[in-house]
Every structure is written in structure tokens, then in C-alpha cells.
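Reader question, answered in our methods column.
A reader sent in the components of a multi-part assembly and asked whether the whole thing could be modeled at once rather than chain by chain. We filled in our standard form and ran it. Here is what they sent:
COMPLEX SIZE: three components
ENTRIES:
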Amino acid sequence: MTSKIRFGLCCLFVEQPIKFRTATATHLLKKSRSEQLEKLSELAGDNSKALLAAFKYCHAAGIGCFRINSQILPLKTHPVVGYSVSELPDGAAVMATFKECGRFLKKTGLRASLHPDQFVVLNSPRPEVVASSLAEIEYQAEVAEWVGADVINIHAGGGYGDKTAALARFKDGFARLSAAAQGLITLENDDKTYTPADLLPLCRELDVPLVYDVHHHRVLPDGLSIAAATAAALPTWNREPLFHLSSPLTGWKGSGLHRHHDYIDPADFPVEWRDLRVTVEVEAKAKELAVKKLMRDLSDSGRPVS
DNA sequence: AGCGGTCAAGTTGAT
DNA sequence: ATCAACTTGACCGCT
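And here is the structure of the entire assembly that came back:
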């Protein structure tokens, strides 16, 4: 049975009429500052309400975790149009709705996470990249505090031809985060550069949990079995462990390996995870339909297909 | 209403 | 050299 597994939905819906809005900086730059803030306030207000709807849907559907889009507060840390919520005309209402999301989370036991996107690179050799990355993480930590999210998951960054030096730089960047943000950061193995074996020593040293992405591990293996990587990842967590699962678009042979399928092939669900009490975020293009189908597939048979 | 061009940001690897 | 991929298409301006 999979009753102890909490499945997570990532950011979006395909069937539910729940939409998150955003804006482009190019468009906003044509407006006055007050017009910019008015527009951003409208988007932030809509998104805070959409987030509450997303939480309510997940809870009702038996989906145990929701990943919040980085653009929940659009362009929050943009160098020109960026803003603080208190500047927004409806800032107080926006914050109140986020805090209502937090109360819903606490009441229901739903979990929430954030995943800053590819532009957040704490180990970049370029100071301006690190600076913008720190700002983006601190913004997401603020949102996390309002809504009670307990994970801000990032990748270690680039390799730059010397992974040892690059991971040392990661530590420098991490040290510059606030204590609150440090307590939320997790590291995920990627499909290009950093394997679980690369990251586990760093995770242990910094007390940062490893988000074990089994798809990335299958694409970029390191000699660790799935069982070994799972067993090593679990003790890095001081809260419920969180893993990632997806299926390749075009099967495990040939190209297209890196791309995500609409749904999850239940055979890709590791048997090693079956009896764990963990969160598994489902990365699939069919979104809530894929999460619900996977839960159905795994419970119908009482066991993952193998 | 529909459609095409465009969108803040980094890094890697396939073509 | 260009560009798609990444957690994800959405928005704007034109017809």
C-alpha cells in the first residue's frame, strides 16, 4: 500500500480553473511607478486567492503537498520593477490572504514547498548572480513563512569545470542567507552536473536535506543504487523527507530522456519508496490529473507495477 | 476572439 | 553558433 506516501502537485493545474497570473517587466516599464504598483497589486491579490483555492483543491483531492510557483508575487525581486508587499495598494489584503493560506495549511496538515527557478545559482563565480539569487531566496523565504511552507528547494548550480571548487562556493553563498532561509533550503540532485553522491557530503556538512530526484538520478547515475541513495537521503531530513518523481517523455531509451511525460508510469515509482513516510512531488505535465492517476494506479494494485 | 511575438535572470549540452 | 531544457506558458498588442 502507499498510504503513508504524501503526493505533491507542482505549481499548476490543467483541468481545475485555478490560474496564477504574471506580468512582463517590459510591459510594466512603460507605465508610471504608481501604475506598476497598481497592476502588481492586482496580480498579487489574484494569486494569493488562487493559492488558497489551490490548497483547498489539493486537500479535497487527497493531494498532500503543493509546490508554489516562484512568480506567486510576480517580478518581486526585479531590479527595476521589484517591490515590497507593503508598497502595494492592497498589500495588507494580499498578506492577509497569504496568512489565511497558512492557517489552512496548519489546520489540514497540507504541506507546501517552493522551488526557485534556474536563475538562482548560489555557486556562480559572478557576484551579481549570487546577489540576485540571495534576494530571490529571501523573498521566497518570506512567502514560505506566511504560508507555512517548510522547503525551498534549489540545485547546487553550475560545475564550471571544477565541481569541488564550485561546491565550496556554494557554501559561501549559503552562509550569506538569513538563518530563516537557511533553515528552509534543500538541495536537489540534477540531471547534468550534481549527483546524490556529489551532494550528500555537502548536505551533511551544512545540515541541508537532500531532495532525492530519482528521475535525475536515472539520467545522471553515480554508482549509488536507488536503494542506497534513498537510504542516504532519508537521514539528511529533520522534517518529512521530500523526493521527486517523473517519467521521461520518450521512454528510457534514446533521446528525450530529460523531458517530462504527461503522466507517471507506475513502473517508475521506486519499490524502495513503497513503505516510507515521505512526500513525493510529481513532476508531470498533466499536473493534478497525473497525481490523481498515479495515486489510483498505485493503490488499485496495492503495489507498484514492476 | 484568435494569433504570433515576446518575456529578468544562468548554465549546460544537443544540434 | 544557436537553442532547448529546466518546476511552468502567459501576456500583450495586433488583426
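What stands out: The CA atoms of residues 85 and 95 of chain A lie 8 Å apart. The radius of gyration of chain A is 19 Å.
Send us your own complexes using the same form.
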